[in-house]
Amino acid sequence: MSLVGRDVELARIQRLLTNARGARSGVLVLRGAAGIGKSVLLDHAVSIAEAEGAMRVVRGAGVESDSELAYGGLHQLLFPRLDRLDALPTPQATALRCAFGLAEGDESQSVPDLRRHPVVARRSGRGCPSAVRGR
How many CA atoms lie within 13 A of 134 on its CB side? Predict the structure, then answer.
């Protein structure tokens, strides 16, 4: 896929994916008006990650009606993977259990652990990094 005039963005995406394969987490934020190509850039990143067969892509979609749900995006991305909680370090597993209502606790104390140690960047059960994609 050729994306004209997007060399800077494509280089950042490639660097992020390369780092993820090396077990280094990262974040990519795409902002802009509707129609400028954010989804095309994300689709490109997904195609690279999936084509190389080294990454599992986790997708989510943000909708306004979900904004009232605490940790709605986290639920969307990680609820299907709760069977892997025991593979995480205790602080992250505890934070997720609190966020999902599976354990008692003060999530305001637990959830920052997720930001310091990004759960979604941990290696999945197949031994490959995960890439997260939101819409």
Answer: 15
Q: What is the DSSP string of 89-115?
A: -HHHHHHHHHHTTSS-S-HHHHTHHHH
- Distance in angstroms (rounded) separating the CA atoms of residues 109 and 107: 5
Please give the sequence-ordered ranges of beta strands (E in DSSP) within the chain, or none if there are none: 56-60, 130-134
* Total-model pTM: 0.58
Cα–Cα distance between 119 and 110 in angstroms, integer? 13
Which are the contacts of 3, defined by CB distance < 8 A and separation ≥ 6? Answer: 9, 10, 37, 40, 41, 44
Digit-coded pLDDT (tens) for 16-51:
988 888 888 888 888 888 888 888 998 998 888 888
Tokens of 82: 């709760």
Residue 121 · residue 48 · CB < 8 Å: no
Secondary structure element (H or E) that encloses residue 40, with its range: helix 38-51
